[in-house]
Amino acid sequence: MATQTPIVPAKGDAALSHRLFFDTVQDWLTTVDHKKIGIMYIVYALIFLVIAGFEALLMRIQLAIPNNTFVSPQAFNRLFTMHGTTMVFFVGMPILFGFGNYLVPLMIGARDMAFPRLNSFSFWISAFGGILLYFSYLGGDGLYGAGSAPDVGWFAYAPLTARVFSPGHSTDYWTLALLLSGVGSIGTALNFVATIICMRCPGMRLNRMPLLPWLYLVTSTMVFVAVSPLTAAQIMLMLDRYVGSHFFDTQAGGSAVLWMHFFWIFGHPEVYILVLPAFAFANEIIPVFSRKAIFGYPAMVAASVGIGFISLSVWAHHMFTVGLGPYGNTFFVFATMIISVPTGIKIFNWLATLWGGKIQFTVPMMFAVAFLFQFLIAGLTGIMLSVAPFDWQLGNSYFVVAHFHYVLVGAILIMIFAAFYYWYPKATGRMMNVAMGKWHFWLFFIGFHLTFDFMHIPGIYGMPRRIYTYEADRGWALLNMIVSSGAFFQAVASAIFVYNLVWSYFKGPAAGADPWDAWTLEWSTTSPPPAYNFAITPTVESRRPLWDLKHPEDPDSKYEL
Amino acid sequence: MIESAVLPQATTEEWKLPSRGVVGMVCLIAAESAIFIIFVVAYVYYIGKSISGPQPRDVLELPIVSSICLLSSSVTVHFAVSALHHGKRSLTSLWLALTVLLGSIFLAGTAQEWYQLIYHRGLTIQTNLFGTTFYSLVGLHASHVIVGLLMLSLSLIFSLTGQLTTKHTERLEVLSLYWHFVDAVWVIVFTVVYVFGR
């Protein structure tokens, strides 16, 4: 049985049109609708993606040739600090929360998130954090003298953050921005968990829930145990800098290594907090364009939960070079290696989903296939670095930078692009331009591999991270030139992508409710969905409710346990 | 391919999900626990590492009375919830008032202790690592007590003005969960700071 979603006609009163602009602004500022908040998260993250990408370009120009003086050493320190902080806290987290906000209630057949006002609060406090971070360029030194941004690295190791070594307020802007972003993240994560547990539509038991909400549930639970320690450490750092306590003050007996532990207890689970939503997108996109149900649904859920648990016990592999002693090293080496088991299960399940499917190489599917290969390589260099003696050799080198950018760009960003092409029709009602999409894919693909494949090699040759320039006789010059030229391919590709987003909004072909012939609930309502999402609360009997609807003679519920 | 929007409607079954208030509070408690764990770890890690005095055994005394007050306030808030559940509104007010009173006695005890430490024993947050970790851990807990007391007082006011009715039972229960958490944290802080750390 199926029911039509009635479409409420838009208000078209001409007398009100002159007030339309202010009404629209007020509507977006005060909205508690999960779809609008989701879009605001995404747009906000895209703005910061452009800013932080621009910072990366400046760094690559500086490093393209030896003995370059394009930016000063001080400015370079600020650039890599701001690039890292922005990309993790003000691009990665908000864009994934944005997609989650938009998709989770739609996919579980809910009207909105569990706490709509908390949702709005979380977004605005995170947004304020990002603005505060960039305000440091104006206000970093306080009222006296020119401003400056934080320059302590995105991990802000003690004692560099002590008042003596970081005078002025630049480090405080960093601390406060992360504190606010952390509060927002915990609020949103709490909202996701409450929504997924308490708001599912009738019939959607946990074992019938699509994998995307499942992975957001795991990610959100990890936010509680990973982001909170960072919040605690930021409170300690604030006390150290303002009240004169001694948490990380080595002269009073405090420990700089304790900060490293606290930071990486957050920092490593954070990587999985960012990558699990990327897995979630792959879990939705790969089956639809293979025209098959996902292979091994229970194994996928178990692997995700397993990753969530194991990721909490691997943080000190960021600290092998500190010297943890043989027992600590052994534990963290094995914990880090074990996490590749559930990750491997996922890769095999995606491959098994592709196997024997009628694969359609649409733009989102192209990105998803690139993701599979690039994530595999990122994982393999990860296993290399998990071996403590190997890490002693290459720790703090460009090999490490290449490895984690392979994860963050090659896996996460690529899947975010895929998600854009896949769900854009749902959010706007229009398809994205395919030709531009393919240009975007190929240019970005070439640029990515030019940059990050070749970045491994100077690392092996001994080029350290965070240096602002290098001597010509080191033999790194050609490799760095290749790396930098790849960055420009990626910049051009990203510009095409942004242009495509805007162009398609006005000129893209109409999408209809279900352009991909997909199976999950978000495709059962109109594109864009009405404010109330579903006119009648849907009920489901299987993991693919729209398959059941389209194939009543052969529904999934016959096969699922 | 479906062109227009069609909603799947399967046969309905009995469908009951947990309360979002309780789930939300459990999530908040999980996040707060992680914050407290980090402060407790810092406290334990720095036990005996202070370069200068005073040391914990020189200045700390067991806050027995205020601890008993705080822990028994968990019982009174539970009685308040169950009184509200049974619609006994004046009894709810009484139990809530008692909870606020007991919490305030605890807070006054902490204030008294800090006054003694700062003005008579010369221990501030700047003195040494003990001062740093002690004031931040106990202070973090005390700030949670203050937040809890504010919300309980608000409930008391609503209860006295007759705006708290049986349909608010679940909300009061969510608040009581938070209060139980604050009490449970105190058990850990008490054990770490006043028993093992001394």
Write up what this structure looks like:
- The complex is a heterodimer of chains A (561) and B (198).
- With 561 residues, chain A is mostly helical.
- Chain A has a single domain (30-558), classed as Cytochrome C Oxidase, Chain A (Up-down Bundle).
- Chain A is built from 16 helices and 1 strand.
- In chain A, helix 3 packs parallel to helix 13, helix 11 packs parallel to helix 14 (434-460) and helix 13 runs antiparallel to helix 14.
- The longest helix of chain A is centred in the first third of the chain and has 35 residues, at 73-107.
- Chain B is mainly alpha-helical and 198 residues long.
- Chain B has one domain (21-46, 65-196): Cytochrome c oxidase, subunit III, four-helix bundle (Four Helix Bundle (Hemerythrin (Met), subunit A), Up-down Bundle), CATH 1.20.120.80.
- In chain B, 73% of the residues lie in helices and 2% in strands.
- Chain B has helices at residues 20-45, 56-59, 64-85, 89-120, 129-160, 169-196, and one strand at 6-8.
- In chain B, helix 5 runs antiparallel to helix 6 (169-196).
- The model of chain B has no long low-confidence stretch (mean pLDDT 92).
- At the A-B interface, strand 1, helix 5, helix 6, helix 7 and helix 16 of A face strand 1, helix 1 and helix 5 of B.
Q: Largest chain interface and its two residue counts?
A: A-B, 70 and 48 residues
Order of helices and strands of chain B: EHHHHHH
> Can you summarize the main beta sheet of chain B?
none
Note the main sheet of chain A.
Answer: none
The oligomeric state of the chains shown is heterodimer
Q: How many domains is the backbone of chain A divided into? A: 1
Helices and strands, with pairings:
The complex is a heterodimer of chains A (561) and B (198).
Chain A: E1 2-4, H1 20-30, H2 34-64, H3 73-107, H4 116-139, H5 170-198, H6 211-242, H7 256-290, H8 297-310, H9 326-338, H10 340-354, H11 363-386, H12 388-394, H13 398-428, H14 434-460, H15 477-507, H16 545-550
Chain B: E1 6-8, H1 20-45, H2 56-59, H3 64-85, H4 89-120, H5 129-160, H6 169-196
